[in-house]
Amino acid sequence: MDANKFSCFVDLCEKIRSSTSKNEKVSILSAYLSILDESSLPIVVLFLSGNIFPKGSRLNLNLGFSTIMHSLSEIAILEHKEIQRIYLKHGDMGALTEYAVSRKYIIPHRNRLTVVKAINERKYVI
Predict the structure, then answer these.
(1) Those residues with Cβ within 8 angstroms of residue 54's Cβ, 6 or more apart along the chain or in another chain
(2) Whole-model pTM over 0.70
(3) Which SS3 state, helix, strand or coil, does residue 62 take?
(4) Least crowded by CB within 10 Å, which of 13, 42, 93, 99?
(5) What is the pLDDT of residues 15-39, one digit of tens each?
(6) Among the listed residues 106, 52, 44, the one whose alpha carbon sits nearest the alpha carbon of residue 76
(7) With contact defined as beta carbons under 8 Å apart, do 117 and 110 qualify?
């Protein structure tokens, strides 16, 4: 298994999330970090810090907590208060996101997105 693949990083995050022991989390993380190559190590550390751009970078997503919560509310088709309740229950944004995506509404065939509709809806993406 190539530890530098993103799927291995995802597996690492899942193992850490599922463990309740701090010592076990440290052990899992140190084992993983020790087998990464030099190019992957700083990227993984950056991702684990909750960022995708290095500190001091001019790039910034500008996504605050409320923006993420609002987006998850729309994805799951749930009221904002319900999303907040679920977040408080799990105490973890990753678990909330997994729940929201599992409830994602699939657009019926007759309402599929068109190029024109996509260009008109870009204001919601930018």
Answers:
(1) 46
(2) no
(3) coil
(4) 42
(5) 988 888 999 999 999 999 999 888 8
(6) 106
(7) no
